[in-house]
Amino acid sequence: MKKSILLALVVLVSVPMAFPSIVTNTNQxxxxxxxxxxxxxxxxxxxxxxxxxxxRLQDGFHLYLSNQTISQDKTVVNExxxxxxxxxxxxxxxxxxxxxxxxxxxxxxxxxxxxxxxxGGGAADYKTGLPSFEQPFSTLPVLLxxxxxxxxxxxxxxxxxxxxxxxxxxxxxxxxxxxxxxxxFGLRYVSAKNTYEGSxxxxxxxxxxPALGLSGTMIPAANLFTMLGQTGYAALVANKAVDASASGxxxxxxxxxxxxxxxxxxxxxxxxxxxxxxxxxxxxxxxxGLFPNGEKTNADIPGTLALGASYxxxxxxxxxxxxxxxxxxxxxxxxxxxxxxxxxxxFALGLEYDLFKTLTISAGYLNSSYGVLANYQTxxxxxxxxxxxxxxxxxxxxxxxxxxxxxxxxxxxxxSKQITYAPFGAYTETYKQTTFGFGVGVNYSFR
Length: 447
What we know:
Elements: H1 2-7, H2 30-35, H3 46-49, E1 60-78, E2 87-94, E3 98-106, E4 109-126, H4 131-138, H5 140-146, E5 154-176, E6 181-205, E7 208-209, E8 214-215, E9 219-220, H6 221-227, H7 231-236, E10 240-259, E11 265-272, E12 278-286, E13 296-298, E14 304-314, E15 317-326, E16 340-354, E17 359-372, E18 386-398, E19 401-412, E20 415-421, E21 425-446
């Protein structure tokens, strides 16, 4: 029981607003919302998606600023019969999720800078905890009854809130070799921080044993075990709290290529190397002893290969396609990468149509597939394959000023696994998720 209770407080905070990577966020502009297939961008957000494509901008200084508002619910349904309520919902909210890009382009050269929430970006609030938090306490009635104290109920105030923010600061140099080929090289500095705040309070039970003055009403479990001389159990059910954070930084080298074999067709490739990232724990309070101050963990950001294509079917109609794979199996996650059967893969398609000279409408579809095994999934951190749908519009207010807006909806495939609770047997735990987002972006150019 001691091990179970303590493990319930060891939480891997990972609340990525990612589409679709395990660690890296790819929703880095409203153009992504509008099309979902963005790796062949030749607009200002190409600072992230296709640095080699920045050479297609007109000479001058270009700025892009956007914000996304993202709402995500992560639901866990556990069928362990002793739980008071087997459904747990974590609310992840990111009202502010900004992207900023700046480009200076002159002739065959372009210099660019980008700021992105490259990972994380939200806070997960589990107001009633999680199954792994509560399950050890749910068996207290069984334990006490086996000790000769008939008990039918338990209660506990359990809460956990975690946040994750990986900030990316990227700089690129782009060069046009000729009209067909352009290349770019960049570096991204990543500053990562995860926070952990949790508490287990007011664990109580309702033992019935008149000889000891126990009438079947709810009493603090710690008081009961102290009265019984069970000081070890009393310590386990006492109030506990955790307030800690883990932070670190790393550098990502980025290589980009764009080829234009014929007019109207762009083919692109972007390769990001694995980012070695080590997180160091800073602990303010830890009643469990499982968040030791100064402890280091490996949390690499996997390398990525992103391929894109765009084609002007008509002067007013453009089609886009993207493919992305992350090399998750090569990352160092302190052994957790062994629970990955194949690397993350995605493909996306998008269409864009100039309804009027000043108004463009667009829509896209993205399919993401993870190769996680059952042992990877936990109530604290699970991944679900998904279908994503996006749409939006861009309004050109002036020749050098445009505004765009977009919506995104992610439909996930439920997943489940069997968990054995000795000596009670195996029970199913099911994972569900929903994500919705919207945002607005502004492009402005000084020419």
